[in-house]
């Protein structure tokens, strides 16, 4: 022991007394009085130490000495009084005389006498009396150190609040004394300033290196902060000084049990602690019982440890057979082990010793409550009524708990009792910091019993009616507060985390339940079977049956005994039902029912935790499964059983609703309605029943008014925010948004901060086109905190109203305000804001700004994904990231930044591999930039990801088409059409391919197959488009126009149909501008039809609505110019020339064939052929591409005609061969080639070429028919010449010159 002075000894002895170490207190007192024999205070400490250790004679001797001293006389009399009472002195006269002397002495006592008396009362744990004496002493002398310290000690350790700051009165000369510093440290600890307390204690540890007291106080301080590692370090340091130190071993037990959950090591430490405690304090019943109580409440009912505690208690009972407290505690331990008979035996023994022992009577009542024998329940109820009567002021939580156990058929009453029990426990620990006392009073094991009983009586969240919601929320809040306190105090208590998950599940908060279960599996016990089962249950409730099945498998892999669990088979049955395996589902559910019945028979409720809700779920799932198999007899029989089982319980309404659903299955709608109407407004499931009733009126009876009436009744009987909101939803469902707004307004009065409700209100206002009111509403509501989603809705409304500046301003302001926040929720919100901002900028034609915004959104989303790391949400978050990349790629494509677009598409595939949209867009882009090999790779990857993807098959065909491999392209298209004859995109492409290969003979067959696959009354626009395309490409222009006209209103095919109609109207006979001038100028009929065609083209041009893509905008503009050229008016030609020049001057269109064709055509019409030739020669060497094919071929034809006019036949033939290579049905190319052969007098070849032109033109272009007949005549094919003449004359009997010059000559030639 350190060299301590008199006051130091006093504080050490007082400390031992405070923690009930009475033997140690006695030893310290003897040592102190030996060192300072004249010190009166130390004699007082020694006397009280003797009382505390039942040494009455020694106490009386010391008290006699103290009474001789004037200043110690009062203290001596108090000690003498306590000794006589302890000794059981039946001579009341002696005690009365002592009491009279005490009263007399107290009246004339000075401050020293009073403070010494206060010390006695303090040591005897009579705190109120001690406080009274100490305060009187303080009034007499407020500067004395002993007065100040005793007052301070009483306030710090035994008062709920500090009445006075006694430290301010202590002189500086005393400020470094052990008692002052220790009290100061206690003061800081009392005020939750643990760091300050530890600093002071560290100074004491340095000054008294061999004294354990400051180290123990430091350890207690660290324990109150739950600084587990530091507690262990300090405990080990104490044990290095004193190997048997009880406080150090006890602290290690708490860390081992509460932090680590290591019950095996905990038991060994408990054995060591109790062995040392019995050696140090062999007759100290109080401290042994206090520690046994503590350990029994935090060992999670570990059987080995409980058996060890039983041995200690039995030994204590042997040594103290006339004391009831050890027997009571032993009875409590047997209760924890569910050994009711043994428990009852010890409680009865305790009552024999002390008939008035409340704890013993309460323990006996508990045994009677759990006793299932006849008459036990009534006996228990009488006992509880008696206990309630005798302890009206401060009821024990166990009384309320036991009362709830007796309320089997009255869940509401049971829940009230349980709530009161929970509140009492919370009140008991309200002003305590974390300590041994805190854990004992919190009693985690008992708390879980209460919560478990609460779950057995409480309905699920969906059963709550609106009028009871507030009250139920308060009850649930109390439970959650208590459970979180337990988990905070006892992090390794897996049972508490399980219970927290169950409570959250019952409340419908599945996310919080999952968090609790994941915490249990991650930090406490990864093999916990029940946790895996509950996770499976949550997934099943959420409809994630695959994840539920996986969780069951994981639980089974840890422990095959999971198959003995009721819940395992219940969830397995639900999963099987979701897969459509109803027979297997019934087998699993039947097994669950058998297990449940066995558990109830064996009274094994605590270990199974089968709630009334789970029991109801089992019955309902089984009934539903029978219903699905149409086994209605079995379903009805089970329903009757369920009605009996759940009569007068919280779940009765749920059974009634299920009965109504069963009636619906059998088609008995009236009976279903009657069942639902039987559920009254005050019953738990009224809200669900009336909602179901409303759905029947809407969907089965088609009665919208009755549907709305149901919700109006809900509001009438259960008025509140929830029901008004439901009424609003109902009005929205039947398209009455004005009335919905009124309902939402009522709902918002009760719950103005509900963001979901505010969102509904905003949407209703928008639905009624009250945009200004909606904007004002949003402006008001977003002034509140946490309205990020509503601000997004407001910005979206601005965008919808095309107020892009306001939308952008509000979003930018939000982004600025939240730039410092860096948590996950804010990151998620910022991503949403940036995505919407990018959308606004896109609508405002700020594409580059939109791309920049999306880049920032991408960076934010990457950070969010990195923080999420794992979990079910990571896949969804990566999908969002992929969508951002896809949007950026689309924007880059619009501004023709193809390299950037390709990078973004690849990024999207990185975050969402195999994404069909990304692969499809990437393939299209590769085709657009003419990188056909990579395009093919993307298509192959797409087909691997989705073998039946028709768009990919079309693209593979297009790739072959672009590579001028028309046969392969046609093969792909035919394969698609064999699978789906009405795949119009493939059919349109096949027509184009057939046109270019010249194999147009089988097109009628494919169209016939498509026609057969569609109904005549319901023909698709795609069919008309394809029919028009076939007719156009085979020269049937009037029929083509009719079919295109039928498709022109369609959103998918309409635009292209209109483009094709304009092309036909502008160039109906496929004659170029160069030749039409000379050939048809005098034909008045042609002039009339031509005027009509041009007017039609003009009207169609005005009807066109290009959708913003650069390609569509350019095509529309070029068609406008070609229309101007087709009028052949000089002013129009010059306008077209000017616009085409402007287009050709653009950097991106410098080598585009469209503007070049327009320029060349304009120059030809203006008789400026050399200029036209220069423009055409510039683009003639362009590589043939699918997009530019039509314009390029027309350029080649126009240049060929110029060469023909200049007699440059070789150059013309070279161009015409290129045209025919890419478009085998080009009438004009064959006609020009025939013309060249004819000029070269190669009539046989000319006839063959004219024959192709005549055939592919649909034999409608009579000038070609005339030339064919003429060349046949010249090549002496008279029969062919006659046939050609007849075909022309059948269409026009007055065709000039053909009859006389060719037909008659051919006939004469055959005759001769």
Topology (SSEs and partners):
Blueprint: H1 6-18, H2 22-35, H3 40-52, H4 56-68, H5 73-86, H6 92-108, H7 111-123, H8 127-140, H9 145-158, H10 178-190, H11 194-207, H12 212-224, H13 228-241, H14 246-259, H15 263-280, H16 285-298, H17 303-319, H18 325-336, H19 340-353, H20 358-370, H21 376-390, H22 397-405, H23 411-429, H24 436-442, H25 444-457, H26 469-489, H27 494-506, H28 510-524, H29 529-542, H30 545-558, H31 566-578, H32 582-601, H33 605-608, H34 612-628, H35 632-645, H36 652-665, H37 669-677, H38 686-700, H39 704-717, H40 721-733, H41 737-750, H42 755-767, H43 771-781, H44 788-800, H45 804-817, H46 824-843, H47 847-868, H48 873-894, H49 898-911, H50 916-928, H51 932-945, H52 950-962, H53 966-979, H54 984-997, H55 1003-1012, H56 1021-1033, H57 1037-1047, H58 1054-1066, H59 1073-1080, H60 1084-1103, H61 1110-1127, H62 1130-1144, H63 1153-1165, H64 1169-1180, H65 1189-1205, H66 1209-1222, H67 1227-1239, H68 1243-1256, H69 1262-1274, H70 1278-1291, H71 1298-1311
Helix pairs in contact: 1-2, 1-3, 2-3, 3-4, 3-5, 3-7, 4-5, 5-6, 5-7, 7-8, 7-9, 8-9, 9-10, 10-11, 11-12, 12-13, 13-14, 14-15, 15-17, 16-17, 16-18, 16-24, 17-18, 18-19, 18-20, 19-20, 20-21, 20-22, 22-23, 23-25, 23-26, 25-26, 25-27, 26-27, 27-28, 27-29, 28-29, 29-30, 29-31, 30-31, ...
Polypeptide structure, described:
The protein is mainly alpha-helical. Among the domains are: 72 residues, no CATH class; 87 residues. It contains 71 helices and no strands. The protein is elongated and about 170 Å long. The termini are far apart.
């Amino acid at each position: 022991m350190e060299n301590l002075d008199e006051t130091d000894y006093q504080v050490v002895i007082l400390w031992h007394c405070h923690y009930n170490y009475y033997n140690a207190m006695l030893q310290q007192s003897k040592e102190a009085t030996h060192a300072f024999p004249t010190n009166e205070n130390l004699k007082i400490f020694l006397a009280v130490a003797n009382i505390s250790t039942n040494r009455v004679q020694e106490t009386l001797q010391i008290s006699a000495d103290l009474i001789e001293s004037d200043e110690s006389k009062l203290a001596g009399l108090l000690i003498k009084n306590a000794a006589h009472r302890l000794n059981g002195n039946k001579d009341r006269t002696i005690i009365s005389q002592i009491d009279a002397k005490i009263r007399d002495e107290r009246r004339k006592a000075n401050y020293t006498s009073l403070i010494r008396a206060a010390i006695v009362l303090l040591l005897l744990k009579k705190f109120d009396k001690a406080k009274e004496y100490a305060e009187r002493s303080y009034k007499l002398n407020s500067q004395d150190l002993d007065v100040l310290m005793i007052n301070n000690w009483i306030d710090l350790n035994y008062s709920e609040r500090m009445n006075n700051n006694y430290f301010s009165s202590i002189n500086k000369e005393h400020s470094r004394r052990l008692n002052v510093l220790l009290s100061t440290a206690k003061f800081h600890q009392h005020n939750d300033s643990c760091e300050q307390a530890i600093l002071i204690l560290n100074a004491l540890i340095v000054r008294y290196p061999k004294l354990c007291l400051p180290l123990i106080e430091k350890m207690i301080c660290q324990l109150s902060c739950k600084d587990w590692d530091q507690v262990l370090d300090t405990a080990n340091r104490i044990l290095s000084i004193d190997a048997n130190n009880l406080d150090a071993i006890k602290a290690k037990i708490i860390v081992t049990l509460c932090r680590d959950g290591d019950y095996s090591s905990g038991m060994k430490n408990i054995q060591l602690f109790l062995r040392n405690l019995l050696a140090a304090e062999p007759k100290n019943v109080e401290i042994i019982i206090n520690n046994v109580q503590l350990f029994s409440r935090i060992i999670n009912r570990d059987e080995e440890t409980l058996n060890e505690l039983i041995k200690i208690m039995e030994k204590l009972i042997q040594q103290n057979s006339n004391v009831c407290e050890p027997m009571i505690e032993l009875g409590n331990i047997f209760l924890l082990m569910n050994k009711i008979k043994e428990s009852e035996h010890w409680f009865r023994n305790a009552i024999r010793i002390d008939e008035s022992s409340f704890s013993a009577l309460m323990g006996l009542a508990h045994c009677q409550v759990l006793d299932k024998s006849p008459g036990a329940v009534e006996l228990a109820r009488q006992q509880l009524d008696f206990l309630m009567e005798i302890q009206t002021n401060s009821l024990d939580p166990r009384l309320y708990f036991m009362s709830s156990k007796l309320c089997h058929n009255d869940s509401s009453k049971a829940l009230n009792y349980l709530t009161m029990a929970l509140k009492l426990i919370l009140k008991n620990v309200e002003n305590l910091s974390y300590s041994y006392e805190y854990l004992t009073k919190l009693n985690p094991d008992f708390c879980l019993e209460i919560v478990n009983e609460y779950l057995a009586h409480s309905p699920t969240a969906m059963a709550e009616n609106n009028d009871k919601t507030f009250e139920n929320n308060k009850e649930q809040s109390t439970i959650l507060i208590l459970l979180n306190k337990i988990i905070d105090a006892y992090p390794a208590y897996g049972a508490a985390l399980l219970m927290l998950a169950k409570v959250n599940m019952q409340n419908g908060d599945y996310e919080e339940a999952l968090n609790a279960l994941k915490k249990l599996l991650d930090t406490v016990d990864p093999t916990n079977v029940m946790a895996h089962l509950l996770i499976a249950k949550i997934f099943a409730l959420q409809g994630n049956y695959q994840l539920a099945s996986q969780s069951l498998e994981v639980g089974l892999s840890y422990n095959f005994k999971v198959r003995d669990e009721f819940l395992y088979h219940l969830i397995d049955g639900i999963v099987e039902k979701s897969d459509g395996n109803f027979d297997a589902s019934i087998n699993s559910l039947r097994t669950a029912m058998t297990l449940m019945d066995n558990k109830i028979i064996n009274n094994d409720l605590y270990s199974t935790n089968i709630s009334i809700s789970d029991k109801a779920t089992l019955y309902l799932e089984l009934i539903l499964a029978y219903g699905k198999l149409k086994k209605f007899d079995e379903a009805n029989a089970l329903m009757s059983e369920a009605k009996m089982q759940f009569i007068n319980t919280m779940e009765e309404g749920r059974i009634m609703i299920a009965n109504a659903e069963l009636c619906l299955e059998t088609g008995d709608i009236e009976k279903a309605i009657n069942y639902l109407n039987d559920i009254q407004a005050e019953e738990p499931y009224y809200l669900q029943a009336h909602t179901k009733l409303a759905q029947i009126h809407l969907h089965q009876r088609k009665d919208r008014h009755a549907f709305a009436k149901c919700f109006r009744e809900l509001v009438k009987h259960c008025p509140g925010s929830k029901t008004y909101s439901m009424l609003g939803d109902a009005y929205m469902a039947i398209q009455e948004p004005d009335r919905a707004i009124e309902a939402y307004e009522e709902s918002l009065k009760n719950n103005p901060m509900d963001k979901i409700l505010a969102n509904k209100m905003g949407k209703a206002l928008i639905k009624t086109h009250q945009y200004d009111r909606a904007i004002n509403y949003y402006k008001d509501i977003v002034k509140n905190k946490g309205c990020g989603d509503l601000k997004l809705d407001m910005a979206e409304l601005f965008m919808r109203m095309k107020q892009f500046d306001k939308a952008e301003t509000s979003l930018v302001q939000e982004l600025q305000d939240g730039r410092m926040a860096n948590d996950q929720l804010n990151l998620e919100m910022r991503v949403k804001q940036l995505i919407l901002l990018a959308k606004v900028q896109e609508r405002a034609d700020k594409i580059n700004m939109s791309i920049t915004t999306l880049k920032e959104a991408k960076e934010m989303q990457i950070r969010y994904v990195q923080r999420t790391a794992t979990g079910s949400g990571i896949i969804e978050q990566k999908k969002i990231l992929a969508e951002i990349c896809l949007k950026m790629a689309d924007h880059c494509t619009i501004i023709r930044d193809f390299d950037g677009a390709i990078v973004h598409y690849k990024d999207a595939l990185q975050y969402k591999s195999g994404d069909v949209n990304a692969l499809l867009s990437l393939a299209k882009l590769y085709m657009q930039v003419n990188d056909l090999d990579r395009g093919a790779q993307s298509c192959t990857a797409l087909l691997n990801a989705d073998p039946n993807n028709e768009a990919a098959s079309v693209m593979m065909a297009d790739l072959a088409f672009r590579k001028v491999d028309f046969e392969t392209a046609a093969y792909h298209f035919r394969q698609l059409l064999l699978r789906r004859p009405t795949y119009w995109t493939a059919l349109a492409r096949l027509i184009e391919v057939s046109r270019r290969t010249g194999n147009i003979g089988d097109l009628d067959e494919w169209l016939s197959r498509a026609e057969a696959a569609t109904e005549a009354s319901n023909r698709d626009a795609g069919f008309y488009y394809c029919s028009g395309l076939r007719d156009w490409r085979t020269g049937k222009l009037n029929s083509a126009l009719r079919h295109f006209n039928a498709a022109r209103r369609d959103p998918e095919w309409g635009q292209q149909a209109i483009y094709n109609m304009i092309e036909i109207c502008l160039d109906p006979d496929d004659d170029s501008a160069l030749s039409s001038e000379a050939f048809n100028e005098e034909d008045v009929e042609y002039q009339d039809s031509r005027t009509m065609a041009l007017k039609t083209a003009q009207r169609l041009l005005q009807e066109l609505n290009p959708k913003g893509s650069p390609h569509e905008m350019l095509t529309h503009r070029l068609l406008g110019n070609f229309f101007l050229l087709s009028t052949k008016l000089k002013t129009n030609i010059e306008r077209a020339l000017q616009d085409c020049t402007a287009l050709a001057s653009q950097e991106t269109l410098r080598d585009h064939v469209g503007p070049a064709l327009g320029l060349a055509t304009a120059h030809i019409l203006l008789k400026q052929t050399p200029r036209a030739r220069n423009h055409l020669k510039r683009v003639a060497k362009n590589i043939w591409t699918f997009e530019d094919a039509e314009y390029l071929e027309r350029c080649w034809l126009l240049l060929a005609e110029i060469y023909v006019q200049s007699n440059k036949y070789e150059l013309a033939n070279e161009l015409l061969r290129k045209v025919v290579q890419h478009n085998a049905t080009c009438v004009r190319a064959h006609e020009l080639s025939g013309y060249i052969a004819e000029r070269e007098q190669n009539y046989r070849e000319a006839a063959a070429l004219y024959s192709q032109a005549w055939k592919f033109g649909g034999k409608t272009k009579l000038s070609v028919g005339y030339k064919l007949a003429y060349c046949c005549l010249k090549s002496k094919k008279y029969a062919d010449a006659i046939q050609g003449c007849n075909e022309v004359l059948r269409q026009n009997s007055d065709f000039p010159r053909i009859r006389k010059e060719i037909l008659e000559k051919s006939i004469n030639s055959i005759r001769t």
